[in-house]
Amino acid sequence: MSTRAVEFDKPLTVVPPGERGATRIADRVVAKIASQAAREAVGTLPPDAGRPSASVVVHHEVAHVRVHLELGYPCDIGARCRTVRHQVVERVGALVGMQVPEVVVQVEQLHLIAAPGAVQGRTR
Q1: What is the pLDDT of residue 116?
Q2: Cα(36)–Cα(94) distance, rounded to whole angstroms?
Q3: CA distance 76 to 34
Q4: How many C-beta atoms surround the C-beta of residue 26 within 10 A?
């Protein structure tokens, strides 16, 4: 009998799940998910506002997220930032299974939204 035939006759060895390897999700993938979550949370922005972006540092399945965004003004800035934080924590947790203990929301710029019929500029 050849040695090849003997190899196929051996019983399969079952490797325990903890020893099979690991899945690593790149920081930039988590950042894209966080950016999309921030876009969902912010909703409609003024036409001249940039899209939200995010940077992420992952360490031991824990993601620390920083979101950069622009908002229309006037608005409740604190409430909008809370909504963004909540959405980022929920989406990153649901999609990649990571804990997100910290989401720093940095408002880069406010865009003035003129009320309908309002006159802009100074009057004498």
Answers
A1: 63
A2: 13
A3: 21
A4: 10
Q: Say if CB 101 and CB 62 are below 8 A apart.
A: yes
Span 109-123, average pLDDT: 71
Indicate whether 103 pLDDT > 60.
Answer: yes
Among 23-27, 69-73, 91-95, 118-122, name the one with the lowest average pLDDT. 118-122
Which parts of the chain fold into alpha helices (H)?
3-9, 27-42, 77-96
Q: Tell me how far apart the alpha carbons of residues 68 and 51 are, in angstroms, rounded to a whole number.
A: 9
- List strands edge to edge, sheet with 99-112: 53-59, 62-73, 99-112
DSSP letter for each residue of 25-50: --HHHHHHHHHHHHHHHH-S--TTPP
**What is the Cα Rg of the chain in Å?**
24
β-pairing, 62-73 with 53-59?
Answer: antiparallel
Bridge partners, 73 (sequence order): 112
| Rounded CA separation 73/16 (Å) | 56
Cβ-contact 93, 99 below 8 angstroms: yes
